[in-house]
Amino acid sequence: MTKISAIILTKNSEKLIPDCLTSVSWTDEIVVIDENSSDKTREIAGKAGGKVFTFSGNFSEKRNFGAKKASGDWLLYVDVDERVTPLLRKEIRSRLAKREAPSSAYHQSPYVAYAIPRRNFVFGKELKYCGFWPDYVKRLFKKDKFRGWTGELHEEPNFEVDSEVVTGGKGKIGHLERPLTHLKHNNLSEMVAKTNEWSEIEARLMYEAKHPPMNLFRFSTAMFREFWLRMIKQKAFLDGTVGIIYAVYQVYSRFISYAKLWEMQIKTKK
Q1: Which of 88, 119, 169, 252 shows its CA 20 to 30 Å from the CA of 135?
Q2: How far apart are CA 116 and CA 21, in angstroms?
Q3: 4-184 in CATH: which number?
Q4: What residue spans define the domains of the chain?
């Protein structure tokens, strides 16, 4: 029978980890990669039967470390603020079981991984616009075809396809129908804290990639593009007040990343 390992990354996640662990308790193994939590995250995970390991690094490095510690035939990556619903659990079990049956149409499936849609919740409200549906994420991988994550911030998985290592899967990714539940943000303070942390990384990556110098024109066009994308093209206003707040916040988030890039650039000139 196919063995599934759930892999969860944590850092001071004592409020989120209990429900996340419950949602993957049906898997054959739970691997928790913790980044030196100072709260009860590791204790909670251990008591729930998780195999807890301490590791520091960027997102790709932590995800890759989790894969090394997992023993399953399939790897299911679940963020600590995500929940595997009963319907998704049933679909995963059913899809993988069909792959094992010689008489099944799925038996000769070329897929090395599956992407899963997400229902995103901000301030307790599900956002269906602003680019949030179906929001497919690649999370269920056949371990013997998986060749690791790359990317420091917006990481992508790599797979062996026809004897070549291919980023993202390129046509060998199946799509599940049942979604993950993603509790994206609970309050503005949480959003600002995450933006401050991630914008540092994003700005540094743009700086290292020799991004053109930021000026009034580039700031203006970048902010306009982000606003147009979120509010007009992706129709964030149809999600009501929360949708509008989130769309405007994304403009602010983009601004902070570019402002930090500008700061790095002017320091270099001195």
Answers
A1: 252
A2: 18
A3: 3.90.550.10
A4: 4-184, 187-269
